[in-house]
Amino acid sequence: MEFPFDINHIFSDRISILDHTLVASRQSAVRTDLQDQIAAVVDELGRASAKAQQLPAPITSASKLQSQKHQLYLMKDGESNRGRGLVVGFLKVGYKKLFLLDRNGVHVEAEPLCVLDFYVAETLQRHGYGLELFNYMLQHQNVEPELLAYDRPSNKLLAFLAKHYGLVRSVPQVRFQICLCVRRMENRFPSGSRCCIVQDM
Length: 201
Description:
Blueprint: H1 7-10, E1 15-18, H2 26-30, H3 32-52, H4 62-67, E2 70-77, E3 86-95, E4 98-101, E5 107-110, E6 113-120, H5 129-141, E7 149-151, H6 155-165, E8 179-181, E9 196-199
Parallel strand pairs: 6-7, 7-9
Antiparallel strand pairs: 1-2, 2-3, 3-6, 4-5, 8-9
């Protein structure tokens, strides 16, 4: 995804982590013009993600990121676009309090880290970028994929989780249509909290 400004000037790292401050570097912390460009990138990514998921409105925007305690992992390809760089995609995560049913119908209260939005530009898919971005987030958060919650996952995301992490099974929930996934080859749900939560609110 190309922009009419130098992506490398805004995002110095291959993967940048944004939060409510919309700061990607020391330079962008003091320059409002760079923060405006960061906001434009986040807004455009949110619109592209919503369109790809056929959502009525974006669930990711600069204003929403500024008002919520979420983190957005943004990946760039710094060598493309004649050295000006382009944005590959993003992954947004945050904590949510959930009330779940386990396989035995017992209510469990949890506050897992949730995958809230995940998008790689259509022209850049199937090149390993999504897996690289997702693994970076897992390492940064020090969490396993089956310990995350997935908010309104698309079929592409479910296929991605099955292919790369073996998360395939689900148990429907009474409220919010939440499901629990377990790794492939397991015949039953693991004990404790080792599960993948899929949430469709």
